[in-house]
Design goal:
Layout: H1 4-19, H2 23-30, H3 34-42, H4 49-58, H5 65-70, H6 96-137
Helix pairs in contact: 2-4
Length: about 140
């Protein structure tokens, strides 16, 4: 039977996989450097309380879960893990009003894009004309 210090990396890895996270994501979410996580996973070195808190937060464990593992107990999840292979909810058919609104939004977005392009072209033309005018007047 593995020691509690040997169990910690296995518990961390199992929870990470449950949550669908990479070690880089755990590092980012915990605020703990990747090398520190690697050291902990190797079972070497002391673990500071701030490091424990960050890891517990990233792995969605209750505060004190790492100490519980190190004392021979189990971590306490604070949120159920995401279901990684859960199929998307089926799309429902849009009502005629929703379809009409969506079409209006698309038309307005297209018109807005056309106006942005027109504005850009006019600004470029104005800049060019101002530049020519300044050259003619010597300013």
């Amino acid at each position: 039977m593995p020691s509690p210090r040997e169990r910690l990396p296995a518990e961390m890895d199992a929870r990470r996989l449950e949550l669908g996270l990479t070690w880089d994501q755990v590092a980012a979410l915990s605020g703990v450097h990747r090398e520190t996580l690697r050291t902990i996973r190797r079972g070497t070195g002391d673990i500071r309380s701030l490091t424990k808190s960050g890891i517990e937060k990233a792995l969605q464990w209750a505060a004190g879960s790492i100490d519980a593992i190190l004392a021979g107990g189990d971590p306490t999840p604070i949120e159920p893990p995401r279901e990684p292979d859960r199929p998307p909810a089926p799309e429902r058919e849009m009502s005629p009003i929703e379809r009409e609104l969506l079409e209006r939004i698309r038309r307005h977005e297209a018109e807005l894009e056309r106006l942005r392009e027109e504005d850009r072209a006019l600004r470029e033309k104005l800049d060019r004309l101002l530049g020519e005018s300044n050259q003619q007047t010597g300013t």
